Design the sequence.
């Protein structure tokens, strides 16, 4: 893993993109040059001094030439409800943190030949760089995205542009794509195989709410597909020291920050 | 990797026989055994590194969620998760030694015997500069705070550890008592070379929407800037009550925070929760102490210890 840096990242933009969803761009050249798909940044939000802890944010996209990181975030708690009001400032940012997706390496090694990526809600964000990387290497890759409504399917067009085909989408309210949870789409894909050639998948990556990851991981395992999940727990240090963010695994309690956030799903004790 | 800026000010202090090149160490449990912070600070440039609490055979710790952020602070209930003293000796302490760090090892136990066994295991190595005996963790059901709130138990465990080592021995006190001076006197009577305080304040956070506790274990230890006034008051009280040097901690984020503790009676200070906010907090605190001394015309930081006027 590359050395961690603590970089003052200047906010470039911070725009609403959907219901309680915002896209933020930060100038963070060192991290943008080093970040790998699935890694995250640990950020101190400026102007929120009462909040003493940093927050982990997945990296949606990185442009190493321009030194820009993009972060897709959802208003969840008081700090993320505060963030949309920030118009300028510097975010002290530690990164790139953690072990990301292994898909690209597995494709290079030949152990992954057909990939299925499943993103629920903002879980679409930490999979996007993986999708880009797999597509660039020529790995047949299908994407399933789920969201509550059409307006919340904010990553859909970007995936479409990057992959050249529309991702398989589901919305809870039926306003776009399959009505209901995206799990039925995942089950179909696993049964039918890769869209391009019908070959069964041998790599499945899922990120989203924990119940979704559990269900999809179980589907992947029952089809014999190597499956990875990206776990996020409440974090304090974000660099492996405090043991706040542990995940129960078959190998004991492991840190989601630096042992993860991406884990082999078969090792997770849900 | 940061180091403090150079200065002619005399910064070295003596904490009950432990020589520290400056008054700043880390609060146990916030810095692991230093390695995680190696991209940010030079551990050799700190007064000492205090390692995460270690038990004899390793503990799994508590269920998640283990932390909750609170106004200007945080609660934790990690539960002293650690892989055991042999792992520390084999994998962590040699790294600290090679890195040039002064090392304080924080020790824990579920029983008096376990504390002694941990010390005995560490006595077999030359990788320890001092011990910090943790009789104040609020997040375990046996040992920890259950010992540290009872003067007789404090005397017993400190006396047993004292008999097991000649190295400097710091005893870490809990603030969750009616009279911390009474506990401090018990620890020093049993042979403590120095006292560290405060450990975390027992607290609770509730999610009203879900009507659930924020922590799986319901209660945890409060730390961060929110506790600093309580910690200062207790350092000041204990400084008046006993003659041994004190290691002050509780919400220290800046050099000025550290100076306040030193004025209240601390010979050295520990940076804890601030490491989570700012991975270079330890070195920033040393720099802040230097800046204060320069501005105030202080040539030796020892002049400030208990210097409240």
Sequence:
């Amino acid at each position: 893993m590359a050395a961690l840096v603590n970089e003052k990242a200047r906010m470039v933009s911070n725009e609403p993109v959907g219901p309680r969803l915002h896209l933020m761009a930060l100038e963070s050249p060192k991290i943008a040059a080093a970040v790998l798909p699935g890694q995250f940044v640990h950020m101190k939000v400026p102007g929120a001094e009462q909040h003493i802890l940093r927050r982990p944010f997945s990296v949606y996209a990185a442009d190493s030439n321009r030194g820009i990181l993009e972060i897709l975030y959802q208003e969840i708690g008081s700090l993320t409800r505060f963030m949309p009001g920030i118009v300028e400032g510097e975010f002290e940012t530690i990164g790139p943190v953690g072990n990301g997706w292994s898909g690209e390496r597995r494709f290079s090694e030949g152990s992954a030949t057909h990939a299925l990526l499943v993103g629920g809600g903002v879980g679409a964000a930490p999979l996007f760089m993986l999708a880009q990387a797999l597509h660039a290497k020529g790995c047949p890759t299908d994407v399933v995205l789920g969201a509550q409504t059409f307006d919340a399917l904010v990553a859909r067009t970007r995936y479409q542009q990057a992959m050249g085909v529309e991702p398989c989408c589901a919305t809870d309210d039926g306003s776009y794509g399959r009505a209901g949870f995206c799990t039925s789409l995942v089950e179909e894909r696993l049964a039918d195989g890769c869209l391009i050639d019908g070959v069964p998948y041998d790599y499945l990556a899922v990120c989203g709410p924990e119940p979704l990851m559990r269900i999809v991981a179980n589907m992947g395992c029952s089809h014999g597909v190597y499956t990875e999940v990206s776990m996020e727990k409440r974090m304090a240090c974000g660099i492996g020291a405090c043991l706040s963010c542990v995940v129960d695994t078959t190998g004991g309690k492991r840190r989601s920050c630096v042992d993860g956030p991406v884990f082999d799903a078969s090792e997770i004790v849900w | 990797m940061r180091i403090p800026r150079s200065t002619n000010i005399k910064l070295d202090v003596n904490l009950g026989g432990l020589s520290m090149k400056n008054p700043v160490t880390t609060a146990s449990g916030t810095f692991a055994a230093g390695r995680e912070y190696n991209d940010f600070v030079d551990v050799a440039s700190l007064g000492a590194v205090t390692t995460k609490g270690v038990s004899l055979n390793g503990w799994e710790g508590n269920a998640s969620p283990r932390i909750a952020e609170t106004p200007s602070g945080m609660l934790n209930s990690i539960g002293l998760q650690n892989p055991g003293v042999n792992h520390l000796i084999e994998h962590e302490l040699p790294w600290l030694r090679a890195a040039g760090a002064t090392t304080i090892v924080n020790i824990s136990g579920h029983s008096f015997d376990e504390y002694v066994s941990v010390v005995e295991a560490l006595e077999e190595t030359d990788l320890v500069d001092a011990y910090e005996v943790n009789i104040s963790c609020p997040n375990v059901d046996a040992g920890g705070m259950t010992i540290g709130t009872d003067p007789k138990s404090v005397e017993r465990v400190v006396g047993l550890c004292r008999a097991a080592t000649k190295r400097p021995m710091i005893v870490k006190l809990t603030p969750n008592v009616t009279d911390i001076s009474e506990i401090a006197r018990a620890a020093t009577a049993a042979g403590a070379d120095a006292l560290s305080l405060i450990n975390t304040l027992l607290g609770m956070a509730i999610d009203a929407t879900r009507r659930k506790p924020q922590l799986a274990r319901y209660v945890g230890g409060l730390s961060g800037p929110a506790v600093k006034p309580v910690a200062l008051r207790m350092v000041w009280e204990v400084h008046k009550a006993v003659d041994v040097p004190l290691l002050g901690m509780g919400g220290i984020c800046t050099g000025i925070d550290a100076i306040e503790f030193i004025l209240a009676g601390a010979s050295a200070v520990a940076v804890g929760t601030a490491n989570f906010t700012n991975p270079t907090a330890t070195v920033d605190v040393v720099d802040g102490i230097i800046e204060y001394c320069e501005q105030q015309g202080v040539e030796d930081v020892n002049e400030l210890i208990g210097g409240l006027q």
